[in-house]
């Protein structure tokens, strides 16, 4: 199955084709030496991100506001397709962004809310109190981030949220062993 | 020494979150890229893909209208667009095994779990540029070869059937592969 890496080629087999497309990205591979000051592109990118980081607290705040608004939508209208998606996306974005924005301890509470929404077969059975507890925890962890015991507080809150959420999810999915496996589940296999 | 000249690559970043788009743009410019186009959902992303003909697509998974997985499936249609072989890096907060497998089976080239780091993104880009994988076309799959490594300890049936003597009639893709654009 060895095909040339930079020129187009196709090998046809019994039930499949193996295609080596023309490598159009080859143009970006160069042996030209670095110019002074551009030796380490990762460090340059990190520096650029550090310059941007003055805005991160505001961004985190606006993401927390968005989560709160999504919660209010669920409170007012219940779990419709739209309100559920808005709440899930708001929590999911915080889960993915919090560490980048410099608030890594916020991510776990947001992740717990994502799990609650994603693994509940009928979202209308989710107690609104549990949603409130998640949203309020996310906002509290962010708001109190400057406190010296913020990390311990976040760990405690998140652990308790996770316990209550797991208990609810296990009960709701007692007849769905394949989902239970995901809930109790193994570690992520996503590459670092 | 081999290195990547980011200035020669055209990127398309698709994410519904404006903050994440700004971060990606900042990182890519930091690497040296100049051409970075943005789209805020899958549908707009597909249009931008057709218009800008990017070298590398970086897409979020969870987006309105249609998501990053559906976008990947739309791009990975041989003959349906100018570059079904484009490198697609999926950047997502989803990191569960079933999600990674679903992304792989949709034809994603590289998977990058959030939180994003400069190093993680750089490594994925270098990998798609310097170590391109062949594509495999079957009746149910078209995308980068999902077998990254040969596993000498694998025990089980070979799921890919037939040698070169067992040719079946298929429309050759070589002409499309060679087509400019």
Structural features:
A: mainly alpha; Four Helix Bundle (Hemerythrin (Met), subunit A); 7 helices; 3 strands; disordered C terminus; B: alpha/beta; Rossmann fold; five-stranded parallel beta sheet; two-stranded antiparallel ribbon; 34% helix; globular
Overview of the molecule:
The complex is a heterodimer of chains A (192) and B (181). Chain A has a domain at 57-184: Up-down Bundle (Four Helix Bundle (Hemerythrin (Met), subunit A)). Chain A is built from seven helices and three strands; from the N terminus they run E-E-E-H-H-H-H-H-H-H. The two termini of chain A are 29 Å apart. Residues 186-192 of chain A have low confidence and may be disordered. With 192 residues, chain A is mainly α. The radius of gyration of chain A is 23 Å and the shape is extended. In chain A, 59% of the residues lie in helices and 5% in strands. In chain B, 34% of the residues lie in helices and 18% in strands. In chain B, the strands form two sheets. Chain B has a five-stranded parallel beta sheet with strand order 3-2-4-5-6, sandwiched between helices. A two-stranded antiparallel sheet of chain B has the order 7-8. Chains A and B meet through strand 1, strand 2, strand 3, helix 1 and helix 3 of A and strand 1, helix 1, helix 4, strand 6 and helix 5 of B.
List the helices and strands and how they pair.
The complex is a heterodimer of chains A (192) and B (181).
Chain A: E1 9-12, E2 17-20, E3 29-30, H1 41-52, H2 56-77, H3 81-97, H4 104-119, H5 128-143, H6 150-172, H7 177-184
Antiparallel strand pairs in A: 1-2
Helix pairs in contact in A: 2-3, 2-5, 3-4, 4-5, 4-6, 5-6
Chain B: E1 3-4, E2 10-14, H1 18-31, E3 35-39, H2 42-52, E4 56-59, H3 68-75, E5 87-92, H4 97-106, E6 110-113, H5 118-130, E7 135-137, E8 142-144, H6 174-178
């Amino acid at each position: 199955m060895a095909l040339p890496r930079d020129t187009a080629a196709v090998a046809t087999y019994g039930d499949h084709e193996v295609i080596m497309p023309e490598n159009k990205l080859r143009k970006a591979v160069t042996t030209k030496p670095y110019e002074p000051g551009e030796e380490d592109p990762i460090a340059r990118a990190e520096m650029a991100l550090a310059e941007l980081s003055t805005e991160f607290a505001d961004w985190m705040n606006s993401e927390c506001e968005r989560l709160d608004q999504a919660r209010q939508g669920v409170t007012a209208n219940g779990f419709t397709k739209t309100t559920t998606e808005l709440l899930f996306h708001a929590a999911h974005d915080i889960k993915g962004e919090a560490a980048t924005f410099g608030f890594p301890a916020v991510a776990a509470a947001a992740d717990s809310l994502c799990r609650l929404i994603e693994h509940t077969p009928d979202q209308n059975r989710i107690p609104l109190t549990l949603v409130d507890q998640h949203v309020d925890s996310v906002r509290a962890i962010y708001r109190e981030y400057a406190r010296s015991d913020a990390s311990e507080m976040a760990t405690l809150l998140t652990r308790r949220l996770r316990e209550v959420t797991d208990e609810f999810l296990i009960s709701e999915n007692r007849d769905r062993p394949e989902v239970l496996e995901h809930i109790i589940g193994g570690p992520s296999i996503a590459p670092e | 020494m081999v290195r990547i000249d980011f200035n020669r690559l055209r990127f398309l970043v698709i994410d519904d979150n404006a903050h994440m788009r700004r971060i990606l743009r900042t990182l890519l410019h930091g690497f040296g890229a100049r051409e970075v186009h943005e789209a805020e959902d899958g549908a707009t992303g597909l249009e931008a893909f057709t218009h800008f003909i990017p070298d590398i697509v970086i897409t979020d998974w969870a987006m309105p209208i249609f998501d990053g997985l559906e976008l990947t499936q739309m791009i990975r249609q041989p003959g349906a667009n100018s570059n079904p072989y484009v490198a697609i890096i999926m950047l997502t907060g989803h990191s569960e095994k079933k999600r990674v497998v679903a992304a792989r089976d949709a034809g994603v080239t590289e998977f990058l779990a959030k939180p994003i780091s400069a190093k993680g993104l750089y490594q994925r880009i270098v990998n798609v540029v310097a170590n391109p994988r062949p594509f495999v076309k079957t009746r149910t799959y078209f995308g980068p070869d999902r077998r990254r490594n040969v596993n000498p300890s694998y025990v089980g049936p070979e799921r890919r059937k037939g040698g070169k003597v067992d040719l079946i009639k298929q429309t050759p893709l070589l002409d499309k592969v060679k087509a400019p654009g």
